[in-house]
UniProtKB/TrEMBL annotation:
GO terms for molecular function: transferase activity. Keywords: Cell membrane, Lipopolysaccharide biosynthesis, Membrane, Transferase. Belongs to the glycosyltransferase group 1 family. Its EC number is 2.4.99.12. Pathway: Bacterial outer membrane biogenesis; LPS core biosynthesis. Gene3D superfamilies: 3-Deoxy-D-manno-octulosonic-acid transferase, N-terminal domain, Glycogen Phosphorylase B. This is 3-deoxy-D-manno-octulosonic acid transferase. Transmembrane segments: none annotated. It catalyses: lipid IVA (E. coli) + CMP-3-deoxy-beta-D-manno-octulosonate = alpha-Kdo-(2->6)-lipid IVA (E. coli) + CMP + H(+). Involved in lipopolysaccharide (LPS) biosynthesis. Catalyzes the transfer of 3-deoxy-D-manno-octulosonate (Kdo) residue(s) from CMP-Kdo to lipid IV(A), the tetraacyldisaccharide-1,4'-bisphosphate precursor of lipid A. It is found in: Cell membrane. The keyword Cell membrane applies.
Amino acid sequence: MIRGLYSLATLAAQPLLRRKLRRRGVAEPGYLEHVEERFGRYERAAQPGALWIHAVSLGESRAAAILVQALRVREPGLRILLTHGTATGRAEGRRLLREGDAQAWLPWDTPQAVRRFLAHFRPRAGVLMETEVWPNLVAACRRAGVPLVLANARLNAKSLAQARRLGALARPAYGALSAAWAQTEGDAQRLRLLGAPVAGVFGNLKFDATPDAAQLAQGRAWRAGCSRPVVMFASSREGEEAAFLRAIAPVRDAAQWLLVPRHPQRFEAVAALVAAAGFSLERRSEWAGAPAAGPLWLGDSVGEMALYYGLAHVALLGGSFEPLGGQNLIEAAACGCPVVMGPHTFNFSDAAATAQAAGAASRAPDLAAAVQRALALAADPPALAAAQDAALAFAAAHRGAAARTAQALLALAPG
C-alpha cells in the first residue's frame, strides 16, 4: 500500500523533475543531455549481460573507478553499465568506459521507468554505490531476478533516523537487497536496523585509490619552490568560502592560500567572492607553468586533487565547517597531506575519528581556529613531518576493500 502511494507521488512529480533539470542545465549543460533516459527511454540498443554499477555523483564515481579496476583484474572481458544521477558523476564515469561498456542516467523511481530500464539493459547484476537505495528500483530488480547489492555502504545516524521515519518504505527496500557490504562496523549495525542483509564489513574502497604520481610529483615540486607554507581549503562547500576569506584576511601574508571548491559549477561564483573580498587571485586554469606567488590561488580544475594535495603542506577539510557531513579525507592522507577538520564529519565519522587518533588529522571548532592550527603546524617542521608520515601510514593501513568487494561481487554474479 505505502509503495503504491509512493509510486503515485513519483509519477506526479515527473513534470517537476523536468523543470528542475532545465534549471540545473543552465549552469551545467550535462543535465540537458539524454533527458529521456531519466524516464527509461533509450536511443541506442543495449547488449545484455553487463554488470551494472550505479554511482550517483562525483565521489561515488571515483569509488566505482576503484572497484571497476579490481573487477577487470579478475575478469578482463567484463562489460560495465554505469548509471549516475548528477552531471559531475556522469562526466567522471565517462573516463571508465571501454569498448562494449554503456552509460546512462539512473531512471526516476517510477515503476514504469525502472521496468523499462531493466528490460532494455538486462544486467547480470546491479551494484548501488554507498547510499542509493530506491524502493521501486529494488523491488523491480527482485522481480526480474537481478541480484542487487549495496557496496561500500555507509549510513550515518542522521540518515538512519530519516529512513526509520519512512520505515514502511525503507525497510522493504533495504531488506530486498541481495547483500550489503559495509564500510565500517558502525555502518553495518545501522544498516541491519533497517533490515539490510549485511554480508560483510569490507572497509572503504577509497583507501585503495592510488594518487596520480605525476600530479603528486608536480605539486611537490611547485611546493618546494614556494617561500611560504601552502595551506589549502580542500573541497569547500557553499557558505564556507566566505568564512574562510574572513578567517585569512588578518593573516593573508602568513601563507600561500589555495582554495579548491568541491563543485566545478561554482568556480565562477567563488572567484567573484574572492575578488569581492579584496584578494588578488590566480586561477589554476590560467597557470602557464609554476604558479606565481600571491595571496590566493583558486583550484578551478577537475581531476587534479593529487596535484593540489602535493602542493599543500596542510589542508582544511571542506564540508566539515558547516553541517554538511564533511568531504572525503582519505585522498589527502594517501597524498601525505595532513588535514584540519571542522566539527561536522558525520558522513565519514569513523574515518575522521581514526585519522585523528593516528595523527593524520586534527579538529578545530571553526574556520578561524582551523586556519590558526594549520599555520602552526606548517610552521613546525618536525610536527609537520610527523603528521605527513602519519597520513601516509593511515592510508596504507586500511587498504583491501576493493579486492574483497570484487571477489564477493563476482561470486554473487558469475559471468
